[in-house]
Structures are given as C-alpha cells and as structure tokens.
Amino acid sequence: MTTPMTFTLVGGPTAVIEYAGLRMLTDPTFDPPGVYEGGIPLHKLVGPALSPDEVGGIDVVLLSHDQHPDNLDHAGRDFLSRASAVLSTPEAAARIPGVIGLAAWETHSVGDVEIVAVPALHGPEGAEALSGPVTGFLLRAPEQPTVYVSGDNASVALVAEIVAQVDVIDIAVLFTGAANVGRFGDSDLTLNARTAVAAARALGDAVIVPAHAEGWHHFSEIRERLVREFEYSGLAHRLRVPQHGVPLELS
Q: Which residues have a Cβ under 8 Å from the Cβ of 164 and sit 6 or more positions away?
C-alpha cells in the first residue's frame, strides 16, 4: 500500500523526510545565524525552524557532504550521534567516525527501504578539486514513490544520467538557491532557477520540492525567483514549495 511521503523543511538544506516508515534528516544544520570563518567566510542569516529536540528521533541522516558548514554545522555534527545511521561520501566516512560512506550507485538498505548514493557535482566540471566530493540519494521501497534527493548538485547532465538509470522518479528534492561564493566566477555551486527548470524537465513528471534555497548570504537567488521561473516555464503545477516547520504531504 502506497503511503504519502512527508517533507518538513527545517531550514537551508535540512529537512525531515518521513518515508516508508522511516524518519530521515538531510544535511543537519541547527546553528543560530552567524559567520563561519575560513578561506571563504560563509554568513548564515536565518536559524532553524525546529530545534534538534523538536526534530526528534531520526533513523537515517542523508549527508550530502561534510566539508561545508552550510551542509553540516557545529550543532549538526552534534546531532549525528542521535541518528541510527549516517550515510555520506566515502571521504566523509574517513573524517567522521560512524559515518557510512557510499560510492556512487552503492546501496544501503534499512528494512524494506533501499537508499542509493547517486552522482552529484558541487559546481562546474572539475569542481571537485576545490569544492570536494558530494553525493545525492535515491530512496526506493516496495509500493512507495521513488524519491531523489539531489544534495549540493549543480549538474543537469547528472540528473539526466540518474533518470536514465532509474527510469521513473516520482518526487525530487532539489537543492537550489544558486549558491555562489565566487570560486568559479559566474558558475553556481548548486542549481539556479534556470537549471532547476532544466532538471525538472529531465525528471519527467516528478513532483519538485526545492530546498537549500534561502538563509545564507552566498545564495545568489531568492526562492521567489525559482517560483517565477517555474511559472514562466509552464511547470508551476509540479512545484511544491515547503514552509519552514510545516509538514508537506507528497504523493
């Protein structure tokens, strides 16, 4: 029997996904607003809609990567020990004890749910040397929708490659916002409004849920731009925009 998936946006890339009896959390970020110093300082503008205690128990953390604080901040790292399992890149597993590293197309099963690591590229071609490796995830279970979580992926070509491998994706959580710290000039680190529309077209009839679309200074597009782009492209009927802290039921 198919059951709806519930998506609750906590803020930035962080969301609770309730799927096939599991509670999953994407890229934990629970710090208050502030500045993360480093080679390129990152400015967090908005805190989470839910605290770790309000999020509650989590079966699996889906961590696209660990090397940037807008995907795993200080409080997010503390949260990892609360989850029964944390899935990420092999590089993250080498840095963080207890993390399960998955190479592209490798599967980790939890009960009847298959969680498949899928390719992602955090910037233009060749970006890995500077931005580091990242991963997306695919969720599959008997009689349930197939769900794609992009992680910090900027490549429409990789989205099309994933669709070709999987055939049908029913729900796609796309990390958008046109993240750009100037490292690659005008090339963004995540999907922007135009490339999100292109990804949506590659995804067939999938319902599109935007995440990681606000809350940081280095996001160069506001979410309203994304909504308008989908409207002007005739795809508004496929877009489901979550509100912070409010469960969004998807089927």
A: none
- CA 135/CA 23 separation, integer angstroms: 19
Measured in Å, how far apart are the chain's first and last C-alpha atoms? 12
Pairing of strands 42-44, 34-36: antiparallel
d(CA 235, CA 34): 35
CA distances from 135 to 143, 180, 223, 235 (A): 25, 18, 23, 26
Cα dihedral 109/162/240/13 (nearest 10) = 70
φ, ψ (nearest 5 deg) of residue 203:
-85, 10
Structure confidence by residue, pLDDT tens digits, 145-196: 999 999 999 999 999 999 999 989 999 999 999 888 878 887 888 999 999 9
Question: Is 102:46 a contact under the CB 8 Å cutoff?
Answer: no
| pTM over the 0.70 mark | yes
